[in-house]
Each structure stands twice: as C-alpha cells, then as structure tokens.
Amino acid sequence: MNDQNTSPVRQSSTNGGLPKRTASGFLTRRGFLAAGALTVAATALAGCGTAPDGAQAEATEGGSGTTLRVGMEAAYAPYNWQATEETEFTIPIENVSGAYADGYDVQIAKRVAEALGAEPVAVKLSFDGLVDALNNGQIDLIIAGMSDTPERRQSIDFSDPYIEDSIGIFVMKGSPYENATSLADFAGATVMGQKATLYDDVIGEEMPDSTHANPVDTMPAVLSQLAQGAVDAVTYPKMNEEGYMRSNENLVPIQFAEGKGFATTNPASVGYAKGYEKADAVNDAVNAISDTERQEIWTAACDRQPA
C-alpha cells in the first residue's frame, strides 16, 4: 500500500481526469493499454534517457564470457518466479544469493540469450523499477510480462510480442458480484490491480463507475487483499487463471458476456534500450519461437509454478 495513503481507495486527480501516479523520472500521465502495462502506471512508464554506451557495455560483460542481464520481478508466476534449486529450466538470480528464476519469461530469456551467444542471468527488481534499471544500464533486457505501450515507447523500445494475454476479474465465492456478466455490473464496487501494470490502468480506463483502489506491488498481494475483504474484485492476467485458482479455491472468475469484458488486451514483449545494437537479433529470436512452442512452454511453466 502507499505509505502516504493507507486507505485502499485510489485518490483521483484534481482536474477530474484519470488518477495519476508520479515518481522521479517517470511520466505523470497514465496511459492506455498498457499504455500502462502491465504499470503501466507512471512508474513503469519511465521517461528516462538511453543508457550511456559505457553502462550498456558494462552490463553485458560478465566473467570470462558475455552475460545477458534480464530484469524481472521473479514474483509473477507463471511468467516468472523465484526458485531455491537449480534445474534445467532455471537461471541464476544475480542479486539474490543462492536463488534462481524460473517461468515462462525465463524460457524466453534463455532462447534470446542463446541467439545472442550469451549466458542469461536474472536481476530481481520491482516491476515499476524495470524501465529505470534498463536505462541506467543495470540490466540489458526486460523480459517480465511487460506490454509495449506508447508511454513506455517514449523511453525504451520493444520486440514483437512473445505472448498474447487478456484481462479478467476475480471475486470471492459468495460475493454480491459473483454473477456479474459485464464491467457495468461492477458500478460501485472497489476494484484493485497490480501496481504499475496494465491490470491497474484498465480499472480507471474501462470501469469508470467502480471505485479504483490503490494498487499493491505484486499479484499475490492483490489476491490477498481480495481474500481479506479489503476490495470487492481484482483484475488479473487470464492466462494465469488456473494457477491462481489452484492456490485459492474460493476465487471466482467472472464470465463476461460477449463484448462486455475488457476491450484491452495485454501482449508481452521484450524491452530494450533505444539504440540497442542487438535489437534485430532479439526480435528474430522471439519470432523464431512458433505458436506451438509458445503454448508448450506456457503449459509447462504452469505445471511447474509454485502452489
């Protein structure tokens, strides 16, 4: 929660527009899809400059060979999560001793690194700090379920999408909103999304009659707020639905009537600094993964994700 506002309800801007968030170096205007994406909010949509050549070079050289530092939360299963044991699916987390990263994003990172002739390592960061870290040269790429948005394009560039996703709403069993079939049915409901993601942005953009709760940092924290009754509903990535429901049998996914759910979709792309000399190679590596392979990788990640 925001330390300056303990209420779960998001505060609106004084001009009557969409709620705004600010952070040093980031845009103050929340964009559209993800134009916020995933946060899509001001903090993730940084207006930072391109990393100096020296910083970029330093970030890519590691040990006796080339290391590709990939930024991610390592807390967003099945896209990415932290593991304690090394397996054929994991890569080391550089800034967490003895820890590894696994997940769908990690498998994409391994494919990209292989194409670049590099060894991938994860750098665990908050989602809303990834763009800053990229432009400061702390990481080489962002592979973290991040959407390519106009706001983010002001400070970084993106590959073609490596996954397509949509947005859903969870409520708890017994909720007065359990039988909702449209976004309009959530008028008056308090709805929360993950901070600095598209899932937070769409609440203000597509649910204007709902009360927009202050976002929290991770999806587990979002779901915890729902389970505790702090909010009526939460937004979430539909592709993760099965895993979330395995963890909490009281979650109810809303079944929207055709055309009554979110218009916004959430494709994820690889983020890299403007002028990144290996951009074409990254894009080629992404596009070399067939739709069939992507589905197989996703299904396997869902099967491995922690409960």
List keywords for this structure.
single chain; 307 residues; alpha/beta; D-Maltodextrin-Binding Protein, domain 2; 2 domains; five-stranded mixed beta sheet; four-stranded mixed beta sheet; 26% helix; 20% strand; disordered N terminus
Description:
With 307 residues, the chain is α/β, with parallel strands linked by helices. It has 2 domains: 53-164 and 267-304, Periplasmic binding protein-like II (D-Maltodextrin-Binding Protein, domain 2), CATH 3.40.190.10; 167-253, Periplasmic binding protein-like II (D-Maltodextrin-Binding Protein, domain 2, 3-Layer(aba) Sandwich), CATH 3.40.190. The protein contains 9 helices and 15 strands. It has helices at 53-60, 104-116, 130-135, 150-153, 198-206, 219-227, 241-247, 279-287, 291-304; strands spanning 61-62, 65-72, 75-76, 80-83, 91-92, 100-102, 119-124, 141-142, 156-163, 167-172, 190-192, 211-212, 233-237, 251-253, 268-273. Strands 12-11-13-10-14 form a 5-stranded mixed sheet, with helices on both faces. Strands 1, 2, 7 and 8 form a 4-stranded mixed sheet that branches. The protein has a 4-stranded antiparallel sheet with strand order 3-4-6-5. The longest helix has 14 residues, at 291-304. It is globular. It starts with 52 loop residues before the first helix and ends with a helix. Keywords: Signal. Residues 1-46 form the signal peptide. Residues 67-301 form the Solute-binding protein family 3/N-terminal domain.
